[in-house]
Amino acid sequence: MTRPFEYPWMVLLLYIWKGVLTDKCAGSLINNRYVLTAAHCVRTTGDFKLSKVRLGEHDKTKEIDCIVCEDGNEYCADRPIDIDIESTVVHSEYNRPIRFRHDIALLRMAQEVEFSDSISPLCLPVREDVRNTKVAKYTVTGWGITEQQVVSDILLQADLKHMPVPECQQKMKENGLRIDLSEEYQMCAGGDGLVDSCKGDSGGPLGSYTDLTGGQFVQYGIVSAGVVSCGIVCLPGIYTRVNAYMNWIVENMEP
Length: 255
Description:
The chain is mostly beta strands. The protein has helices spanning 128-132, 165-174, 246-251, and strands at 10-17, 20-29, 34-37, 49-55, 66-68, 74-76, 81-90, 105-109, 137-142, 156-163, 186-190, 205-210, 216-225, 237-241. It is 8% helix and 35% strand. Strands 1-2-3-8-7-4 form a 6-stranded antiparallel β-barrel. A 6-stranded antiparallel barrel has the order 9-10-11-14-13-12. The longest helix has 10 residues, at 165-174. One of its GO terms (cellular component) is extracellular region.
């Protein structure tokens, strides 16, 4: 479980579903106007229509999130804010010709956001040395389904280990899953036991703190796909490799 202020770049994606505003995916704040997420969170099926993003959220059941200090004083965040989405950009080759490939999208918010202790962007692997560094362990965050098969109201985190794509591909095959993975565009990570990202975590960031950026958190992956029975079957999750899309991200962001 996480604490308020710990992951201020986390974004909830809000959808209109049967006239009600509900959340179904996540994303990461990358500057004061843009959110990075998965393409499948934008190209939705059924009655879900992407409408807004929510910034500064931690516990969805509380209006204001607070930390209670040892001396009894409270350190409280501002109320979360909902912002309309002005436009979206989905990778032109998403799901073509291979399922889950190029699962990446950008959301442009209708207004610039002011940063605070509870709302601030994360780092992307812009520099070549950051992109090329070998990361053994990652952290993934989200409000997705837990091992008890219920959606979490509180932002959760999981520590995951890097898994080479060939090994990941083999594990998928052994479990009867036909997924054609790409070393260039995708990556895999899994936790001990049944720890993994899950439904509801889609579009959220997989990252790691690195000394190359002064100890800041860098996003290396976007939650893309996994088994339906996550938390039940021990299989790695599949992530869009952010490194491969840095040029695409920059080219598709307006000033």
